[in-house]
Amino acid sequence: VTAVADGVVPYPAEVAERYRAAGYWTGQTFPDLLSAAVAAHGGRTAVVGTGPSGAQRWTYAELDARARGLAAGLAERGVSPGDRVVVWMPNVPEYLETVFALFRLGALPVFALPAHRSSEIRYFAEHAEAVAIVTVARHDRFDHAAAAAEVAAAVPSVRHVVVAAPSGTDLPARAVTLASLRHTPPETLPGDDVDPSSVAFLQLSGGTTGLPKLIPRTHDDYHYSVRASAEICGLSPDTVYLAALPAAHNFTMSSPGLLGVVHAGGTSVLAPSPDADTCFGLIEAERVTLAAVVPPLAAAWVQAASASTKDLSSLAMLQVGGAKCAAELARRIPVALGARLQQVFGMAEGLVNYTRDDDPDDVVEETQGRPISPDDEMRVVDPADPDEREVPPGEVGALLTRGPYTIRGYYRAEEHNAEAFTPDGFYRTGDLVRITARGDIVVTGRVKEQINRGGEKIAAEEVENHLLAHPDVVDAAIVGVPDDFLGERTHAYVIPVPDRDPPRPNALRRFVRERGVAAYKVPDTVEVVDAFPVTGVGKTSRRALRTALAARATEKA
Ligand code: J2J
What we know:
The chain has 19 helices and 27 strands. By secondary structure, it is of the alpha/beta class. Among the domains are: 152 residues, Rossmann fold; 107 residues, ANL, C-terminal domain (GMP Synthetase, Chain A, domain 3, 2-Layer Sandwich). Strands 2-1-13-12-14-15-16-17-18 form a 9-stranded mixed β-sheet, with helices on both faces. The chain has a 5-stranded parallel β-sheet with strand order 4-3-5-8-9, sandwiched between helices. The protein has a 4-stranded antiparallel β-sheet with strand order 19-20-21-22, with no helix packed on it. Helix 5 packs across helix 6 and helix 12 packs across helix 13. The mean pLDDT is 96.
């Protein structure tokens, strides 16, 4: 297992120096984040949720004691500083215990989503050379523990499968319960003196290519984005944050999310499901003040609010991000939910924008806000210009960005990095934006080969590759089509092998699902065609073909 630093593009030394001098990078780490919360707020409630062993409510001191105990147990099993561990868990309190245990150990979480399936988990484990997978037993009618054990058997670096499950749960061979690892911790743990400029974890990218990318974030850069986000959003020890989206998503984790709440000494409530029923119940019961959702969920909550008898009066702010929030929806949120709206335009690669509490209503409703940092550099360039010259102020262009918490490269992805980053270190976000005279960003579209299905990102090529693995498929193209609820859904054009019975759409969807991919990546609709219903463009580029097909599918929709 090689050191993680080998696959990481570092910030140039003089840039790092500047970010330190400016006070962005303070040398604080994620073990420090928890230690500071324990020192200042040890007796306050850190986390509320329902895990495999039932309802839990832990103070900061209890969360830390658990994390230290688990860290000690993992260390005893041979998990060492710098090792990567795939964390594949739904919104259970043990998720936070696990993440902080790994931080305490100086080991690096690799954040998988609960919706991921074996092909994705296997890829993350292989690519990161993970030594362990931490997961749950059954969740959402799927046996995570069994799938993790299969991945462990197939990937030589993976030596441990740890499952948050009550003792006595029937587990696959080689898997152990998280509780059985808990151990008396030593006075100090290796994470206590981890290098703040080192990589703290690997986050997931939405992806634009055949294989998902991993995002290396350092303690220094991420701590800054979390701390500054907590400040922008006015977090305090009185904040009660509802994690409705998956805990491992960058939005839920850091904008300001679960980690921002730890920084502020507030309380995180982990919702087992994002539906309005569950979440409204938690808002009432825990007096939730802040929640973060994607637009389709915001729309569902708005819809459900009128018929709900739950008391939502504690909810002061609803953050909406991950995909474009329509102005119409933005206007309905305060009316229906009695909460102020905050738009959040962020990305796991770094840059995060917020509308601010004192912004006028039209800015909150119609823009996606402005960056966290005065040193977030943004260039809006002509996407058709090979020299990437900037468009005139206020006009639409492709957004490039660089700054004190935006990565300089994906993990172990040299070739892709040459495309995704400019030679001077700007990240090509693939988003089309314009910046208003006031300095607020409006997202207008994208140039990347990705579909944003209600906040869930799908790389066209990744799904096409799964379809191409079918013996009866010659070619496939995935495009996004407008959808009233999701904003966008996926449509697959598939060309079958000639002179044979063409495969049925549903059989193809099942085929993709059975290859072990997240359900949200399975094409919503499949159309079997003799040739792509646009001619010529396919010969110029894959990108042009997808664009032409998307226009065609949109017309028909
Ligand atoms: C339009 N598009 C948006 C928005 C993200 C906070 C919030 C979201 C993410 C996230 C995140 C959008 N309007 N408000 O990491 O910390 C699209 C853009 C962007 C991509 C990033 C955070 N908010 N998007 O969504 O890594 O296309 O991060 O480049 O999942 O989502 O996706 P992701």
